[in-house]
Amino acid sequence: MNGIDINALVQPNQVHRSLYTDPHIFALEMQRLWARSWLFVGHDSQVPQAGDFITTTLAGQPLLMVKQTDGGVAVLHNRCAHKGAQLTLQPAGHAGRTLQCPYHGWRYALDGRLQGQPLQAGYIGSGFEQCPAAQGLTPYGEVAVHGGFVFARSAAGAGGPPFTEWAGDLLEALNLLADRSPQGRLQVAGGVLRTVVPANWKIYLENINDAVHPVTTHQSVSDAATAVWARQGQGEPAATAPLAMRQMLPFGSGYRFFQAMGGRVLPHGHSVLGTQHSIHNEYVSVPGYSEQLAYAHGPQRAQAVLAFVPQNVVFYPSIAIKGAPQVMRVIRPLAVDRTLVEAWAFDAVGAPAQLLESALTYNRVAFSPASIVAHDDLHLFACVQHGLVAQGNEWVSLHREAGVPGDGREVSGTDEALLRNQYAAWVVGMRSGGG
Predict the structure, then answer these.
(1) Dist. CA 316–CA 205, nearest whole Å
(2) How many helices (H) and strands (E) would you count in the chain?
(3) Residue 360 clears pLDDT 90, i.e. is over it
(4) What does the pLDDT look like over 324-335, one tens digit per residue?
(5) How many angstroms separate the CA atoms of 37 and 9, rounded?
(6) Strand locations in 29-158 (E)
(7) Within a 13 Å sphere around the CA of 208, how many CA atoms are in the beta-carbon half?
(8) Predicted TM-score (pTM) of this structure
(9) Which residues, in sequence order, are bridge partners of residue 46?
(10) Residue 121 CB contacts under 8 Å (≥ 6 apart), including other chains
(11) Quick one: pLDDT at residue 1?
(12) Cα–Cα distance measured from residue 365 to residue 359, given in angstroms and rounded to the nearest whole number
């Protein structure tokens, strides 16, 4: 891996195909880019009481997120300090006052401190107190919580930008999402849809910022939805169609619509696609909801919340959020050619039930592996992954609209500047010194 020339693999308007296919590069990404990045761990609504926990994996590391007695959360390596056994394989649960290893019964406080183990007399005079095992469970690193969203950065990321500087303008995206609740509070709802995608994580992330592919990739979705509504709607406008139909029909919008969607390039690889409009604009109206928000947050804030309907807000490299519907995708790389994608839905506490219905329905319509939308994408992701090993052209083009004059920040919805921005952040993250 020391022989990899990071700078040579990313040119201004193209990237080398080995970024998607080389397992050595993938290993280096986990060690450098992902281990040093602020990554989404979970939401605090998943651990409402002290002792509640969830398990997850960040940058290949098995972790526990545990609610503390003081109301905070700890993110700990899910590895007993004794023999290395994982404390639990359950996705979520309640530990009570202590975490206990199922192997030899070592017990830990909720913050990871070792509280005791069987046959303690056998450790007297052994020097145990000075060994790493006596220190208990290892914290993953730094933890930051904003609007209920829990992020963490491993100890390897020490010295990088603090969370608020890293997130920058996108902190407001989390605030706007939370304020869809009249109480300013979200809850994870409906479980988490998980799909293993047979492709490199960057292929999936690029697709999130690619507003050109729906015209061809999802033509079958548009054709099917249009044909069904033509039969069932009997000439009625699409606005009167059932929710799932209204969520599928906009996939048939043409290039002009997607280009005018607008995009914004932000530091650290972050971006917003859909600064002007998105395919979600036409099904977000709920009677009485705007008045409810205005009463709770004030008219000006309510207007800002209702206007927040981006196609995707990307927190590079791990999550993409849609303000309406209230859904989020989380990317968790597994191997150079395998990526776990999670689809989350949020209940805006106190908001009309139609908002939660919209979030849950959208996840099923667009992100379930059984949906006709996800079916298209999964097929193409596998095609790209397999096609990139073909001999010949070694480069992936990111030239679209690179020659369009502008400020470099506000771009069209079809400008690959959003992707070029991701790879600029990739180079920074992959440098051996970080930063």
Answers:
(1) 9
(2) 16, 21
(3) yes
(4) 899 999 999 999
(5) 21
(6) 39-43, 52-58, 61-67, 73-77, 92-94, 98-100, 107-109, 114-116, 141-146, 149-154
(7) 28
(8) 0.93
(9) none
(10) none
(11) 44
(12) 10
